[in-house]
Amino acid sequence: MAAESTRPGREARVKNEEEIAAIRRASEILSGALTMLREHVVPGVTTVELDRLAEEYIRDNGAEPAFKGYAPRFAPGGVEAYPWTLCTSRNEEVVHGLPNDRPLVEGDLISLDAGVRWNGWNSDSAVTYGVGAIAPERARLLQVTEEALALGVEQAVAGNRVFDIARAVQRHVQAAGFAVVRELTGHGIGRTIHEDPDIPNFVPSPFQRHQFRNMLLSAGMTICIEPMVCAGNYRVVTAEDGWTVRTADHSPAAHFEHTVVVRDEAPEVLTRWPSSIPAPAAP
Questions:
Q1: In which domain, by residue range, is 251 found?
Q2: pTM listed for this prediction
Q3: Cα separations (Å) of 195 from 84, 175, 180?
Q4: Phi-psi region of 159 (alpha: psi -120 to 50; beta: other; left: phi over 0)
């Protein structure tokens, strides 16, 4: 679940190995849920049904859906606590889409974003799948966004800074002719879903630096890196439900996210799911 980019800062806390082990277990359960859902993403299924399957899987594995009942600290008046296990964002919906009874159809893109709480510790991950056969440009959007996530994750090593992650994501996305969302970011994670630091997917201009902290990354920090990429321009709008964020120009979007531990030599990726990158054609 993406964080608001204007969220006031709090101090990031390095986790010890016992705490990381709990986040790792929450991530394993979440990875299993998102992997299980892949086979159910077919034409005709509703996102309410996907939500039911996800919640059942999470609870059967001794955990809780972390998003269900989540209430943002800085939400505008009238926005109620999130009522679902999944965020299900379709086509031009970027993030935080609400499950509904409208069936998926061939060619749709569907982002599945979920969190798991196990023994008081949280994980957060998202993947965008194509429904059946999708248009080549949509397949390219998925590939570029997933690649951008991998490049951002590579920068999550001690001694680097938050903007190193942002730069890696932004460069790859923009080189492909796509755009990264500015109004939502990745985030730290631990006892709560959203902790410091914010992890933007772009390097802020000098006039925006007051909104973001280019925090030094330390071994043991747990963060969520989550490129949100638009096929058109980066501007987004929020629907009347107070949750669903859509592209302003109605272009399709993709969203991928991993929970990651910052380490000294190489980052530890805690969440996994089936890749959306198409397999190469046989020679």
A1: 3-269
A2: 0.93
A3: 21, 30, 21
A4: left
